[in-house]
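Q: Now give one record:
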Amino acid sequence: MEEVENVVTEEKEKVTQENPLGTEKISQLIKKFAIPCIISLVVSSLYNIVDQIFIGQGVGYLGNAATNIVFPFTVVTMAFSLMIGDGASSYLSLSLGKKDQESANKGVSNGIIISAILGVFALIIGLVFQEGLLKLFGVTESSYEYAKEYMFYIVLGMPFFMITNALNSIIRADGSPNYAMKTMLVGAILNIILDPIAIFVFHMGVKGAAIATIIGQVVSGIFSILYMKKFKSITITRESLKMDVKTIKKICSLGISSFITQVAITVVLIVMNQTLTKYGAMSKYGSEIPLSALGIVMKVNQIVNSVVIGLAAGAAPIIGFNFGAKKYDRVIKTYAFAVKVSLGITVLGTLIFQLCPQIIIGLFGQENELYNEFAKLCFRIFIALVALNSFQITSGIFFQAIGNPVKAAILSLSRQIGFLIPALLIMPRFLGLKGALYAGPTADFLAFLLAITLVILEVKKIKKMKKEVM
């Protein structure tokens, strides 16, 4: 009996060693997985950025204010798709590390079904409760018609938007990051081509920008769905497609950090919009300028965050597989590498934001001096400590990858809900509109302190586990 167990163990170790996730050089693996992931996420961020640029040039800042008002709905739908996609991809990596093929098949299959159901649900909610949602998101009288028109068409593309984002994570974990990247690229390029045609040739305004966006999302969705016949590490069968409550709960728990991060962003956007409307009206800038300017700055910053998230998400399958295979040295080395690179990227981003804000602002249309003045303040104050935020993002995905959703959720909640919202509610009372801007770096610093504390404790725990295995 002992001999049989030894043979089984040897076979498992042999299979593990043959998998490049457990043997290949970490920097090369991250390059392979992270670069396509980064491109995919940056491209996804560009959907909104491109809309903002062309709307700013063709409609003006009221049009941009409208898209910023609708943005929370897009973010909350993204939250659900990432919860399922990231959760299913983590489930897949952990299952493969443990050599549990049946669980891997079932996790991916259930994830795909749930993402499709949620996409249809988002479409219904967006159409039925449109007016109430716009009021919740802080719409003003001047921007209402623009926001209503933009949201109606954006909602129509939600099923494809959600399926694409969920499948994108799964496709990367399946070992095809380049395919995942291409599915996003094709939609983004189409959007970039159609946006100026709809706005400047056909004079369709925000409606044209929204239609261009959903056409791109539909095309990306079709390419993602076609991949289902090409899976490398799993097989979709009738048995695996049966809904399993236990599997779905595990997927959701593994993806809860991504969900919380996105929902927290939504809550922050709502509180932010309400704060800017209230205190902006008391300032020389008025309500619409702060709504438009800070919204643009946050979306530009999202490009930097997308690089960090893409880097961490690219490292996640490596961390998850090696944690499941009990190769703890590789787990720590992969995480450390991701932190170093993400820090370098965000420091570079901070320098650009601090030194060249007017160049970036000019891309979104030539507005009046008050608008430019406030937009510069947003760049130089609100995202001044974005480099520290990168550590918190990377650490949250690290905890998610090793199957610790509680700590991942704590980190995801800390910056947005635990620190930023209280700062937004308190600081403007004493500093007025500028208080809303100083809330950003305050939250980033406090979240960094919490993240580094949790990571130090977890690394000590992993090192202890390593000694027990040896």
In short: The chain has 19 helices and no strands. The radius of gyration is 22 Å. Residues 25-469 form one domain.
